[in-house]
Amino acid sequence: MSDLKRSYISELASIYGESESKQQLNMLIDYFFGLSRSEQAVRYDFRLSESEMLRMHEAVKDLKRNKPIQYIIGEAEFLDMRIKVNDNVLIPRPETEELIELIAKGEIGPNLNILDIGTGSGCIALALAKNLDNARVSALDISKNALKLADENARINKLEINFVSDDIHNPAIDWGHEFDVIVSNPPYIRRSEEGLMKANVLEYEPHIALFVEDGDPLLFYKAIVGFAAVNLKPGGRLYFEINEALATDVKIMLEENSYNNVGVHKDINGKDRMVSALKA
């Protein structure tokens, strides 16, 4: 195994660098064969069968094609949860973990009624249900394939979420109540920014969840604000993940729609990444 691992790291190093290549190989071996990094270090005698070697070889070929390792193994880590992912949903990002932390710090009341719009894998809804006491969490998405996966993630993590299929641009659901919190990480990358994206994102992650047209980059934020006019309680809060280049535009749009205490929050890299706002 050790010789094979060194050979694969050598093949991948020109794409990912040696350190990341080692990390990805460790993840593959852990996922496929149940050997942690520490166990791999001492199990020099561990041998793969022919079928196991083929499985590793195919996975390394996928890595060489820039396929994200999360799609290869079919799962990602998100705030101490295992989240299943496939090409119908985005891979959860560390920046989105920071959005959850922002909400968890600001929302300290019990029995909050929360809606996650554009839930994808369900990672935001699941993390809020896990980290907020007695929160009632609903989540909607236009993609039935995404909702199927999100529902599976809820079962895996033993969390109860009300998943709903709906289009935020033309909502058909009568919720019959008002939410305390609405959160969304909508598509916000402008088409003109495609050239700045890494190949593993452009070639494998769903564009419908990534991109908006340059002519109306706040399309989803406007739709959510329109929805919130009816479905968010006075004194309720909106939380968004945003494109750092559009922070001022999002802030102005919220203020023009009678939101107070509009705050732009930076991520760990110092980029404007989140917005919170209080409905008047």
Structure description:
The protein has two domains: 2-65; 86-279, Rossmann fold. It has a seven-stranded mixed sheet with strand order 5-4-3-6-9-11-10, sandwiched between helices. A two-stranded antiparallel sheet has the order 1-2. A two-stranded parallel sheet has the order 7-8. With 280 residues, it is α/β, with parallel strands linked by helices. It has helices at 2-16, 18-33, 37-42, 50-64, 69-73, 94-106, 123-131, 144-156, 199-202, 219-231, 247-256, and strands at residues 75-78, 81-84, 113-117, 136-141, 162-165, 179-184, 189-190, 211-212, 232-241, 259-266, 272-279. The chain is built from eleven helices and eleven strands. Helices cover 42% and strands 21% of the residues.
Biggest β-sheet strands, sense, barrel: 7 strands, mixed
Number of helices: 11
In the CATH hierarchy, what is the architecture of the largest domain at level 2? 3-Layer(aba) Sandwich
* Secondary structure category: alpha/beta
Q: Total strand count, please? A: 11
Sheet with most strands: strand arrangement: 5-4-3-6-9-11-10
Strand coverage percent: 15-25%
Number of domains: 2
Give me the CATH superfamily of the largest domain: Vaccinia Virus protein VP39
Helicity, as a percent range? 40-55%
The overall pLDDT average reads 94
Low-confidence stretches: none
CATH topology (fold) name of the largest domain: Rossmann fold
Distance between the termini: 62 Å
Tell the overall outline: elongated
Series of secondary-structure elements, N-terminal to C-terminal: HHHHHEEHEHEHEEEHEHEHEE
CATH class of the largest domain: Alpha Beta
Radius of gyration, taken over Cα atoms and rounded to an integer in Å: 21 Å
